[in-house]
Amino acid sequence: MPKDMTETRDIFERRESAARSYCRSMPAVFTKASGSELTADDGQSYIDFLAGCSSLNYGHNDPDMKAALIDHISADGIAHGLDLHTDTKAAFLEAFDRHILEPRGMDHRVMFTGPTGANAVEAAMKIARKVTGRTNVIAFTNGFHGVTNGALAATGNGYHRGGAGMALSGVTRMPYDGYFAGATDTADFLEAMLSDKSGGVDAPAAIILETVQGEGGLNAASTEWVQRIAKLAKDHGALLIIDDIQAGCGRCGTFFSFEEMGVTPDIVTMAKSLSGFGLPMAMLLVRPEHDVFGPAEHNGTFRGNTHAFVTARVAIEKFWADDAFQKELADKAELIHGKLTELANMVEGSKMKGRGLMQGVDVGSGELAGEICAKAYENGLVVETSGSEDQVVKILAPLTTPVALLEKGFEILLSAAETVISEKTAIAAE
Amino acid sequence: MPKDMTETRDIFERRESAARSYCRSMPAVFTKASGSELTADDGQSYIDFLAGCSSLNYGHNDPDMKAALIDHISADGIAHGLDLHTDTKAAFLEAFDRHILEPRGMDHRVMFTGPTGANAVEAAMKIARKVTGRTNVIAFTNGFHGVTNGALAATGNGYHRGGAGMALSGVTRMPYDGYFAGATDTADFLEAMLSDKSGGVDAPAAIILETVQGEGGLNAASTEWVQRIAKLAKDHGALLIIDDIQAGCGRCGTFFSFEEMGVTPDIVTMAKSLSGFGLPMAMLLVRPEHDVFGPAEHNGTFRGNTHAFVTARVAIEKFWADDAFQKELADKAELIHGKLTELANMVEGSKMKGRGLMQGVDVGSGELAGEICAKAYENGLVVETSGSEDQVVKILAPLTTPVALLEKGFEILLSAAETVISEKTAIAAE
Amino acid sequence: MPKDMTETRDIFERRESAARSYCRSMPAVFTKASGSELTADDGQSYIDFLAGCSSLNYGHNDPDMKAALIDHISADGIAHGLDLHTDTKAAFLEAFDRHILEPRGMDHRVMFTGPTGANAVEAAMKIARKVTGRTNVIAFTNGFHGVTNGALAATGNGYHRGGAGMALSGVTRMPYDGYFAGATDTADFLEAMLSDKSGGVDAPAAIILETVQGEGGLNAASTEWVQRIAKLAKDHGALLIIDDIQAGCGRCGTFFSFEEMGVTPDIVTMAKSLSGFGLPMAMLLVRPEHDVFGPAEHNGTFRGNTHAFVTARVAIEKFWADDAFQKELADKAELIHGKLTELANMVEGSKMKGRGLMQGVDVGSGELAGEICAKAYENGLVVETSGSEDQVVKILAPLTTPVALLEKGFEILLSAAETVISEKTAIAAE
Amino acid sequence: MPKDMTETRDIFERRESAARSYCRSMPAVFTKASGSELTADDGQSYIDFLAGCSSLNYGHNDPDMKAALIDHISADGIAHGLDLHTDTKAAFLEAFDRHILEPRGMDHRVMFTGPTGANAVEAAMKIARKVTGRTNVIAFTNGFHGVTNGALAATGNGYHRGGAGMALSGVTRMPYDGYFAGATDTADFLEAMLSDKSGGVDAPAAIILETVQGEGGLNAASTEWVQRIAKLAKDHGALLIIDDIQAGCGRCGTFFSFEEMGVTPDIVTMAKSLSGFGLPMAMLLVRPEHDVFGPAEHNGTFRGNTHAFVTARVAIEKFWADDAFQKELADKAELIHGKLTELANMVEGSKMKGRGLMQGVDVGSGELAGEICAKAYENGLVVETSGSEDQVVKILAPLTTPVALLEKGFEILLSAAETVISEKTAIAAE
């Protein structure tokens, strides 16, 4: 390692908290990025199948967003505006109204929360509690909704829950779709528990779910199940919150992950790819009758990240003004499914997971999945695992990745898998 | 109002949540900003004595930060990097190490949390609970630490607490410095309660405080009191968390609000002006022995806002590499004190509040304070109130505001106060 | 109604809280009781198939206990002794040791809690949390453990939970044996949730269960299920608490409800029929290694009800010194089963519930069950319903009820059922 | 120790939980008691200045109660009646109505809770939360309200709180009368906190207090303070709960501890001496408009201890039908005050505590107080300490103790104190 790079890394060792994580398995110091490729300070380039955990659905430094942002900054456009009116916020809202809400017949209002997904989830849970006068929120096994205390109560992951250092309250956990693997339907179970006067589950303020559990192992709920849950929420006076932070913004092949399911969530939480450029931005959509917060009742200094409004508007106008992009996504989803089937075929007992451009393979163990990703990284591919045991190799490539680059990325991945598996087989045979 | 502006406002009415707030009393649609001035879409310009609630301590669009950010974007610098190593993060850490931590003898590690102050506070409270194995956090009357559930438990404001829709737990409230107005010392009280085996206050994981309560009405704690609290924390095995989100980054005249108090907090939370440019960025500083989170145990997609790292580095290098800026602040604090004394003299029973460039006048009623600010806004000054009854006219001008502009702003403010008060006197005399 | 009786009832109307309940459906003013019969102030006598909700397993005013108690009082024996040593406590402990613990190979210690079942449950949950350093207690659908806040969190009944006026915490609800009616095994489900690192169920301090859910509708767990749960508790570092308050003291045909299941609970809670005479007494049994409370760490003024010790000792010595009583119970259980089968045969779709002398019939609706019990009461039988919809006619006759009287009681019950059903059929036919 | 006694003690060692407490410092095995005297199995007799912690205000085995109870049992009176109507309950209610409530102009209803003080407190807090729809209950430093989770949250004692093994919620602690020792008035403080919109104390459901804190060190609130708190409760929409469990039933010289203070509590909790005979019995009094529980919404198997109703009725009729007893109490209170003044004079810096027949001396250290009580016990006096450091020698003699016996008891106590102090002085002088 050249001297400069050593020094650069030294500052992380000396001064950055032990909480840092991705940089441990992918230690390069990244300096530039464009489209679906990252470049490190040693000149090495990487294909990006992680996309900022689905925060870079349109790739790195999209030229149109980039140009608009540079123009905005050059012209002394507002960088920080609290929740004052700005021209950039108006333009974003108009684009979102015209191209997203209006065509989908959604009458929701937009609430800009603090610019993290967790903050949007906290706000959503608060609204549901305020609207219903109830405390209990139903959340599901393997759901991930953030790590601030309110949202963390709804998050299943024990490692993250442990970080709270205290028992969390206000949430009842229920099994997600498919949890009983073909036996009892989990929607039936939820219905039984909610209907049973002595079931011991308090009347819910909300039911919160992801249609595909990104962190939880790419578990994809069926349309029928989501519809059942939506109906249960309605029947029991609870709000339906769909957390579309990771699965939304086109990741599942449509703008919202749920838009072809025939359900209308009371609240939708959004973040990650919302700004289009990877800038911090989060918001929630809420049916007008549930828009009950008073002025600044839920607030936050950065609830109006105007730079993000600029790029988010471009993202909406560029990709969602017509259906061209969505069609492209369908083709890519198929390509990904094919390639992952090849991977799945290499590992006995493995399972295909997810849907759209949020697919992966459960290879049965976190160790194997981790080794495959590590080997791929060595060969120039950034890719990560997910699931309660990190057992799923997860593909979150930018939606805009050219087909050729997608194929190149899978070539690296499949070759890495082959190498790892044959090494393992060799060792086992000794 | 010209047609275009009506349309612009219409989208806010139609689609933005009722939670929006500042735009209600300051309805202009802002389009540009530079230094300490904002411009609206009707060409009207405003002097900014609010500075994004202390998020724009270096003014709007500082030319050096702006240039560095445009360069970064133009060169396809990383926009979003999760918590991967990036050259921009390294450069920020090095600057922060060299110019801030090192000279102040602080061995703290830096943890990048989600880019909101609330997220940093949540992380801080989690660390304290994990370190101590205790749940209880001591927080103070009129403290403000954010509105996500963990932080909200520590926030005093009843309106915000009510937004939770549920009882919050894990925090014991204690009276802040001066709460008994000259009678019992509140540090004595806290000591008595913590030492009393039947006092009913559980052993604390942490004591969290702001040295000046920005939202709580510019209550400034004395050095002696902060030292007493620091000692109590130590004696009772609790971590001392100083929330420097609003009072830090030079706002009190030094980089940290507490740096001349002779205390070493176990954890410091930072946000608001940290990026220097108004971009979302938050972090906490934690003593190495308390840096106990495992990798990603507290995580968040936007914990590495690289654009913010770029501007934050420039801010540190430009303003804090030597003591020139700090000296300038001392003069401005005096100027502000003088001008506010004039305001205080207009209102019988009013009180001077705060310190440094975070001062204000408690004019005795929220109604009067609100009318003064409204009149000032009419005349081109953005200024806000604070306190439990909004009774404090609060000055949070950018620290970089030229003296002439500061004076111009105060001219508007004092004239507004005069107008409002004479109108009130006239009405009362009728 | 004669004048006196009106007056007597008047005081209840005027001065007793609306919380009174049994007296609403059984409004007689009772004055005397002996064995399995109650007498009211109008001379009417009633066969008692309720037995103080299983608090009078040995009937009313058992002559031996009565004599011993009168002797004790006459001799100025201690009536109240806090938790001081008394000869009566020693005698009870010796009898309990010799006839109950010793023969069953149980090394548990006896902790006298406040004299209510809820108090014993609260103490048990506290011990489990103190032992494990964990908060979460697993409890089951339709479980009933009392209505003080700690115990109420573990109680399933929504009506009782609602009485708290606040959200209760520290408990995770799981489906009891048979909840999925033949599909997924609920022990499998619990195992999956506890083993899933992202299942969102915190590591448990305890699993608490009744082997037969008395209030919850006479659901009887299978031996296999209880063994599975016991193993899960052990594997996951949790204490197994068996709440034997209603099902214990012979009610299921053996002294403990679980003693033929091959499990050793870490804690057993006891109350109701413990004193033998209906006097308030509760205690818990705890394995020596979990006997972690310091002196009076859990306390209570009436934790040593010495009158109850007197009668409890007699009960143990009279009924449990040999196996004669237990054999008698087996015969009576069979008789009850036969009679209830007759009842079940009258109602289509009805289900037999419970085991031992804790059996009933789920007649499908609370309305029908209530009408049957009301009619029986009219004809001189005290009998009650249970279950989440009050849909189960529940037989809790004293274990000592002579066969002839049992038969007489069932005659009333079956005849009442016949009348009610034929009336309903007649109405339906009109 | 003769063989029998060793065996008796052996069973406690072998089988009773480590939670036992009083028997540790007073290890005699008690067998008989009459009036204010206890007899142990070795024939030794003790004067009782503890009275079952104020549960035996009328002494042991009062002859009239004893006779009535034996009559009741002999006649097969109901021993256990759930909450059915019984003649004994009616007779108690009538006596309580006629001699207690009616003459004091109290329109409260009587709710029989489970027969422990903690249970009554739990019910009271539940009612307050249900009535107000709020969660927060204000409780005071050094207050003791029981150790089940709901009541324990309101109890100040850290040792007992620690027994919960988890953080308790729903209660805000405030300083009791006199906590600031002459400086800030604690009622002023409470008012400031409740009135401060950012004080961080949620709107209270109830304020709960003891007028004399029995366990907390015999702190006696002034009439003015209690009136202030009552007014604050009313002004802030909270219910006033007076916990009269230890201080009531004549202990302070009147039936209720508060009856000469000019306040009308919304709820009064009672237990301890309520039955008159030391039998488990508890209840609460609630204003009719707050009697909001539905049937059995708060329930409990032993909520109708009919034996206790028998003795409780006699107690009311015998002692409270006219003012003779109350006058006697005034004289005895004076006698006790005089004797304790002698004790106080022996110890420099000691403080007189309490009022009525609930007085003591704070001798400055738990060690000294403990040694005095131990020495007194050796010489035939049962007496205990109280307070957060066990620093108060507390006199809770039966109210019926003859003057001569009171004097004899004090003779033992003062002589014990003299011995202990002179030994200490001698050691210090060495």
Automatic annotation (TrEMBL), chains A, B, C, D:
PROSITE patterns from the UniProt entry: AA_TRANSFER_CLASS_3
Stretches assigned to coiled coil: none
Cofactor annotation: pyridoxal 5'-phosphate
EC number per UniProt: 2.6.1.76
Gene3D superfamilies assigned: Aspartate Aminotransferase, domain 1 (3.90.1150.10), Type I PLP-dependent aspartate aminotransferase-like (Major domain) (3.40.640.10)
Gene Ontology terms, MF aspect: diaminobutyrate-2-oxoglutarate transaminase activity; diaminobutyrate-pyruvate transaminase activity; pyridoxal phosphate binding
Pathway where it operates: Amine and polyamine biosynthesis; ectoine biosynthesis; L-ectoine from L-aspartate 4-semialdehyde: step 1/3
UniProt entry keywords in alphabetical sequence: Aminotransferase, Pyridoxal phosphate, Transferase
GO biological process, any: ectoine biosynthetic process
Alphabetical list of Pfam families matching this protein: Aminotran_3
CDD domains found in the cross-reference section: OAT_like
Name of the protein described by the UniProt record: Diaminobutyrate--2-oxoglutarate transaminase
Organism annotation: Marinovum algicola
